[in-house]
Amino acid sequence: MNSKSQLDILAEQFSNWRSTRGGSRLTPSHLAKSALAIMDDYPRSEIFKALGINSNAVRRWEKKYTNSEIETDFVDLETSAPLSTHESLRLEIMYDELTLNISGSSTNLVNFVNALREGRQ
Questions:
Q1: Are 106 and 90 spatial neighbours (Cβ–Cβ below 8 Å)?
Q2: Phi, psi of 92 (to 5 degrees)
Q3: Which of 38, 92, 111, 116 is deepest in the core (most CB within 10 A)?
Q4: Which long-range contacts does 62-68 make (Cβ < 8 Å, 24+ apart)?
């Protein structure tokens, strides 16, 4: 069984976007950032050909999406009142066109966020 490479998957995403983009000519940020993320994994000429992009686009994206924008730092949030260990919380994270909703007990949610912060799986 052949699994698709990151480049093949991204090439499909670029192709899908091109077929449905309507009048928009700007590459969506999630596609541009994904292309930048694989630049060290494949020869640039192979990436350019597979994604239908050129070095000018990559230079624009590199200027627009610096490493500080690609890598996200955690922000400590303070609550106005102490949390009960049985209290239920809901966390919503929005990034570009993606939304992640997580809900559960305050203890489990805090443990989850701490695991993300420490890079645990």
A1: no
A2: -120, 125
A3: 38
A4: 62/36, 64/32, 65/29, 65/32, 65/33, 65/36
d(CA 35, CA 1) in angstroms, rounded, equals 25
Which parts of the chain have pLDDT scores under 70?
A: 1-2, 66-86, 96, 119-121
The structure tokens listed for 79 are 């609550």
**pLDDT at 45 (0 to 100):** 95
Q: Answer whether 34's CB lies under 8 Å from 98's CB.
A: no
Q: How far is CA 31 from CA 9, 58, 73, 107, in A?
A: 11, 11, 21, 35
pTM passes above 0.85: no
Burial class (CB in 10 A: 0-12, 13-18, 19+), 26: exposed
Q: Which of 53, 50, 52 is nearest to 61 (CA)?
A: 53
Q: Where are the domains of the chain?
A: 6-70, 74-121
Place of tokens 């955690």: 74
Tokens read off for 80:
């106005």
